[in-house]
Amino acid sequence: MERQSPRTGARTAPPSSSNVVALVEAALDAHQAGRLDTADSIYREILALDPANSQALHYFGVLHYQRGQHADAAALMSHALKYDRHDAACWSNRGLAAAALGHLDEATICYDQALQLQPDFADARNNFGVALQAQGALNEAVEQYRLAIAANPALVGAHLNLGTVLGKLGRFAEALACYRDALQVDPGSAEAHFNSGNAHNAHGEHEAAIASFERALALRHDYAEAHINLGSAIGKRGDYAGAESHYRRAVAITPNPTNLVCLGGSLGAQGRLDEEETFYREALTRDPHYADAHQNLAWLLLKRGDFKQGWAEFALRWRKSDYEALALPGVAEWRGEPLDGRRLLIVGEQGFGDHFQFLRYAQMLHERGATVDICVREPLLPLAGRVPGVHRAFSGKPEGEYDFWVPMMSVPSCVGTELSTIPADVPYLFADEAKVKAWHKRLIKTGAANRKAGLAWAGSPTFGNDRYRSMVLSELHALAGVAKVSWYPLQKGPAHAQLADAPHAFRAHDFSGELNDFEDTAALIMNLDLVIAVDTGVAHLAGALGKPVWLLLPANSDWRWLEARSDSPWYPGMRLFRQKVLGDWAGVVTEVMQALQQRKL
């Protein structure tokens, strides 16, 4: 958000000696010219001669604000207002000092006072909008920004701020119009192009976002935030080397934890794990509580098989807002205390695949003496309710009394899971028997003599590494020619449309339109001999059901599949097929074909 800078241009002096008047003029001239040390000295001289000089008090406060000394600035401006309560500029600047101190209610009062004295005070309107926006009063902020623009159409910051708040309200076309208006006033505004990029990105217009970030950087080469956002946008294309280049420039300009973690992540996505670690640790040196650095470092350590340190880092992964969204008020988080006779609530987190993987821990906790309830997303309820050890599965707001609660993915750290102690007894998910039998009757008629293989080739397109995690179905077309295999697509979502151009063998038994939920998918999987999938929830579901799974992994695979292994300690019936080169699936498909031709299911 763009706050208007404090004003330093008022010239009306209170009655005083001609010497003081001259000193005030000299102080303001030096201040406006940016000679702050000179202005500081003259303000002190004035106040020694005339301690009640409201102008000197006001603008000496402004000088302190510019130096980041916000408490001193607020005190000086408050003192000035004791002598001149009709100075609208001082009220507005006092609001800026209050906002800088985090006193937003006080800031809005100050801006309101300024506007009562001068309703067309555009800077105060703009700053009032900033304070309202910070308090979450977005519609009220919109009104103030519009009034600021009406009072002064040349106030670029108000156009930018209006665009930002409209973007937060999801009104992206209006936001982009605001940035165009800002560029009409100031064609050299890098911020307007940067904000346009953010609006395009939020609206899913990634190429337009990239173009806007590039224009911002053409105007301001040292714009660290634009380098970061451009790097992220390029990374979504799968160009992690290009992202790395921009992240490195951002780190050179501003080596803060956010930029360091972005750089580390781009290196990890390229498989450069040793280099990646350096930047997470540097980020934590600068901010030991930086959640994203803890999480990325945890993933790296877990991928290496260092579960002891990895789970310890993973326990520190929480951003405040994410934690509060899960936490059970008034109930202690379980961290490994004895559970005999206790009621424990496991709260699900992250994606469906994560749920399927970690539901296994319910039985272990039940065996430790706990009554285990589990809160998960609604589509998972039937399957979660049948997990051994689960007393009750529900979705929504928890009800009832609990002794402890625990985030689902924190359980491994609480129980001290090592590679050798992963609870890998499968199945621990169970399909509905009636649905299994119904699918069995249908599949008897579809190539009963053949081996039955399920196929899922793409995950959610919103996943960060989906470009490399997912495949295009055409890359698997060669599998359609393997003899005595009947294929059953398990693919949902946009990628299902790729079946239209697939070989007949892939389309002949497509029941995916009848897979309305995970219950249906689980029941169909139980009638298959094998599931071949990329790293999606379907692979975890099949593994947890105890079915053989062949998992096709990109070279920058997820932490849970470790490094260089062809098996998984999480799922005994799973076989891993790994890319040698990021983005090249040809070798993986050849290996899968050979394995299909050699294996009797």
Description:
By secondary structure, this protein is α/β, with parallel strands linked by helices. The protein contains 29 helices and 10 strands. The chain has 4 domains: 18-238, Serine Threonine Protein Phosphatase 5, Tetratricopeptide repeat (Alpha Horseshoe); 239-317, Serine Threonine Protein Phosphatase 5, Tetratricopeptide repeat; 322-421, 3-Layer(aba) Sandwich (Rossmann fold), CATH 3.40.50; 433-598, Glycogen Phosphorylase B (Rossmann fold, 3-Layer(aba) Sandwich), CATH 3.40.50. 53% of the residues lie in helices and 8% in strands. The protein is elongated and about 105 Å long.
Layout: helices, strands, pairs:
Elements: H1 18-32, H2 36-49, H3 54-66, H4 70-83, H5 88-100, H6 104-117, H7 122-134, H8 138-151, H9 156-168, H10 172-185, H11 190-202, H12 206-219, H13 224-236, H14 240-253, H15 257-269, H16 273-286, H17 291-303, H18 307-314, H19 320-326, E1 332-333, E2 343-347, H20 352-358, H21 361-367, E3 371-375, H22 381-385, E4 390-394, E5 404-407, H23 411-415, H24 433-443, E6 451-456, H25 466-469, E7 485-489, H26 504-507, H27 518-525, E8 530-534, H28 537-544, E9 549-553, E10 574-578, H29 586-598
Parallel strand pairs: 1-5, 2-3, 2-5, 3-4, 6-7, 6-8, 8-9, 9-10
